[in-house]
Amino acid sequence: MRGLFAASALALLLVTCKPENTNHAPVASAGEDQVTYVHAERAPDGTLIDVFDSVELDGGSSYDPDGSSIVQYFWSFDTIPVGSRLTYEALSPNPDYSPLTHFTPDHEGTYGIVLEVFDGLLLSARDYVQVHVVRSNNTPVADAGPDVNGTTGSPVTLDGSGSHDPDGDFLSYRWELVLVPEDSQLVSADIVYPRTAYPKLTPDAPGVYALSLEVDDGLGGTDDDLVTVTASLGNLPPVVVPGASRTVTPCHDNPITLDGSSSYDPDGDPFTYLWSVTEVPYGSQINSAALTASDEPVTTVQLDRHGLYVFMLTLDDGVNDPSMDVVAILFDDGSSEVPPVAHAGGNQQVQETSSCDDTGCAPCTFRVLLDGTGSYDLNDDPLTYSWELLDGPGELDDPTSPTPELLVASSAPPGPGQMVISTLEVQLVVHDCMSESAPSTAVLTFVCQGA
Fold first, then answer.
1. Could you read off the pLDDT of 204-238 as tens digits, one per residue?
2. What are 103's strand-pairing partners?
3. Domain boundaries of the chain, sorted by first residue
4. Using an 8 Å Cβ cutoff, are 72 and 26 in contact?
5. CATH homologous superfamily of domain 246-331?
6. CB 190 within 8 A of CB 211
7. Distance between CA 272 and CA 315 in Å, rounded?
8. Residue 142 has pLDDT above 70, yes or no
9. Is domain 148-232 classified as CATH 2.60.40.10?
10. Which of 263, 249, 253, 246 is nearest to 301 (CA)?
11. Buried b (16+ CB within 10 A) or exposed e, 183-193
């Protein structure tokens, strides 16, 4: 009975201690995700080609929990970017007994690669690694061209066409003025075509101008370069001064005078004059032949219709292109007539001293200059003047002058320290050829002081 129990216990112990199959599947490790770049290079024929770097994959961190060796590595693509032509064979070597493999991408995007490992008995679960292929952007190169010389008044063309982008990206241009001579009034806004490779600048003063060129590839890459323009004083064209445009009313003289004698040449060069008619009112017979001296600085012309006339003065120094400017004359028919305005100059007080002796005091004599020059006409018509004494004795030397002299004699004061005060009112009316002003008056006060 005891022997039977012992055998049973031994049998149970042997069953309990019998070793089990403890082999576990290996663990694949495809490595860390990677980022690699594609860049453009210029081929011998001048075209741009994409260049990709080889990508190395390392599954050497894979292991077997039981300590067994990994006997085989299985690499494969899980995903490739749209446009890629890679196949399974692009992974080299594959399959292999080495944990290392590599491939060369052929397109931008993300490649997903799978690794499985085998320990001779079991195959591992899949492990994934991603390779991101992105395009690198090289910085463009700005080239503002060689320094140039020029002359004032003449445009200078700059050349930034030597600028380029290693990736073949489209470049945008921006030119700016960073330095001008002391006497120059130019600013960056005076650059013509500043967003192109060939801008223009016209120096306005002698000296050195510095311009910067910035190129931008639109992908965050920029570069800049400087160029200088050294300007000397060049031959300048004549400056036309044809006189001020104006309105001519029936009160003005006709024929009218056109005067360009204030025109000049900055270099002192001789130049010729040429007056011409560019616009006349409907029905007018005036043309350039009606000008009395079309090749002189001053000429006259008889206007034959009311309306607008435009005359051009052209100057030519034989070196530069001719200079031109116009003067407009509006021949008014009187419909815009506005009466003139008189101004008699305002009130005045004048004081004189009388000499007194035992026989009495002498009368005072006053000489006063009246001033009507503040009178005006809104039509700019010539004015005539008419002065009049309204109250009190006196004598005007010229009642038609804008500034006549008034002579007034006063009574003698009763004695020393005493005075005689008198007043006189004057009136001014001004006329143009069509109407007259309202009267303007001034009161003059005369003080004769005995002494």
1. 999 999 999 999 999 889 999 999 999 998 888 89
2. 55
3. 34-135, 148-232, 246-331, 348-450
4. no
5. Immunoglobulins (2.60.40.10)
6. no
7. 5
8. yes
9. yes
10. 253
11. ebebeeebbee
